[in-house]
Amino acid sequence: MLSIIPNYLYKEILKPIIQYFYNKQSNFSLFYYEPFIQHYANYVIDLSLVNKKFFQMISELLKDILNFKNYKALSQFMVSIPTLDKKFKLINNYNFVKVIDNYEMEKYNIKYYNKILYQHCKSFQDTLPILNGTKKLPPNVELMLYLKLEKENEIDLERILNKQERDNEINTLVCHTFILLEYYYSNINLELIGKLIDFLRPINVVFCGERFSLRQDKSIFFNQSTESLNISSNIIKPIEVSNIKNEKTNLKSLSITLSLNGITRGINGCYPRLNDNSHLTFCDFYNVSKSSINIKQDYISMIKTLSNNKTIMDLHLNEICSYGCGSECINGLNTTFVSSGLAKLFSSSTNIKTLLLEGINYTDKNYLNSLVINKTINTLLLFSIKDLNPIFNNVLSKTRTINNIIIGEPPIKIMHLEELLTKYSESIDLYSLSISLYKDDDIKTKLNLLINKINTFKILNIKELNIYISNSNGYNTSKFFLKNNNQTILNIIYYNYTLIKYLGF
């Protein structure tokens, strides 16, 4: 049977399967869960054992897609050092790619590898030799730099950067990822960090700072060389986002936290409120220092910049109130101004493929219709959404572009999942629906009842239904099976950590 079809056709059939398993490009794709890694690995091994030719084709495909991002998932197929079992490994060239941390740098002979990602996570003083050039990294090494910075480190950092600027030094470091870990209330100089980013020219930047601070301009992070920027742990002003230079930027992934509710409160003339500690509430941080006219102008400018951008493919918008009041602060207020701005962004964007909305709960017709009109968003992630019915009824039942839905934290109850599937099984048409499920008592019995219920559906236009259940018992178990009636693949995954957005690179 295998000889009837030319080998190159088999390879073309296998290629999308391997890419689906291991070539996840979105920065907001689900974390590589161990159950999924092993499930995919078993499937790949089964395919490779068909015959010698299949083994060779699978091997070639895995080598083609091997990179730093899927290194963990593919490492079990690789030869770490030259051994006698080399011929039995699917990735038998041990010198392709290597990811090492602080304590392994001296362990490996790095000249054997084509490309190394060095995860450097040490104190600022230990990082100085790399920054000032006294410790040279070989050209095949890319740096993933975790920089823990305190106020007292600024003098040394400024001295290094001034010397490099004065001597016109050229940076020979290849900085793959720069993760800045700011100690709370350290009040570090972000302008100085901007100079460091200009020098390092990292591809990926993550800023883990004081969440509710508006004290400094964060537009310094919009460096021309940066392709992925995650500053969602720290609130950013709309006017700072509008400083993205669309004609020069290479930004492909952007993750930010905004106070959209603060904008709504500001233009509605709401008086700033204090919390129990006599501090401004999250939603009033922004509008306390701005007039309603300026607030509107800043927001309009941000929407215009993002709408005109042609490079960002992954966009994560987080409402700061998802960490606090859950948007109760805008109950009874007119939210049309903010939701209309988002509607303009979604309906006019021609490049966003993955959209993550966190704590953004607008339900007006114009806003929801913009997600239907958009022709590029194929993956929609929803976190901290109060009511999923408007999305299912007014977006998923109408769109033919959005194919993948991920519903993350907080988990929903199994009864709510059953209600959604029962209500919309015939109207939605999705490739995959992934849901984080609340672990009820007697969850296994309830899951069996849910499966039996699904089996009664005449139509279920979902090819892959992934159910994630938090497992506090500390072990991972999974079920993967094919449903007979409508061929929906149902994956039930128990995991012992939080369902999160993929923060990596």
Molecular structure report:
The two termini are 42 Å apart. The protein has a 15-stranded mixed β-sheet with strand order 1-2-3-4-5-6-7-8-9-10-11-12-13-15-14. The protein is flat, with a radius of gyration of 25 Å. Residues 25-33 and 497-505 have low confidence and may be disordered. It is 32% helix and 21% strand. It has helices spanning 7-22, 34-48, 52-65, 71-74, 124-131, 154-166, 190-200, 238-241, 260-267, 292-308, 336-348, 365-373, 389-396, 414-424, 443-454; strands at 97-101, 115-122, 141-149, 174-182, 204-208, 228-235, 253-258, 314-319, 354-358, 379-383, 404-412, 430-437, 462-470, 478-482, 489-495. The chain contains 15 helices and 15 strands. By secondary structure, it is an alpha/beta fold. Helix 6 (154-166) packs across helix 7 and helix 11 runs parallel beside helix 12.
Key phrases:
21% strand; alpha/beta; 15-stranded mixed sheet; flat; 505 residues
Q: In whole angstroms, how far apart are the ends? A: 42 Å
Q: Tell me the number of strands.
A: 15
Order of adjacent strands in the largest pleated sheet = 1-2-3-4-5-6-7-8-9-10-11-12-13-15-14
Work out the helicity level.
25-40%
Radius of gyration (CA) equals: 25 Å
Largest sheet: 15 strands, mixed
Give the DSSP E fraction (strand runs of 2 or more residues).
Answer: 15-25%
- Mean pLDDT equals 77
Structural class: alpha/beta
* Helix-strand topology string: HHHHEEHEHEHEEHEHHEHEHEHEHEHEEE
Question: Which secondary structure elements does this structure contain, and how are they paired or packed?
Answer:
Layout: H1 7-22, H2 34-48, H3 52-65, H4 71-74, E1 97-101, E2 115-122, H5 124-131, E3 141-149, H6 154-166, E4 174-182, H7 190-200, E5 204-208, E6 228-235, H8 238-241, E7 253-258, H9 260-267, H10 292-308, E8 314-319, H11 336-348, E9 354-358, H12 365-373, E10 379-383, H13 389-396, E11 404-412, H14 414-424, E12 430-437, H15 443-454, E13 462-470, E14 478-482, E15 489-495
Parallel strand pairs: 1-2, 2-3, 3-4, 4-5, 5-6, 6-7, 7-8, 8-9, 9-10, 10-11, 11-12, 12-13, 13-15
Antiparallel strand pairs: 14-15
Helix pairs in contact: 1-3, 6-7, 10-11, 11-12, 12-13, 14-15
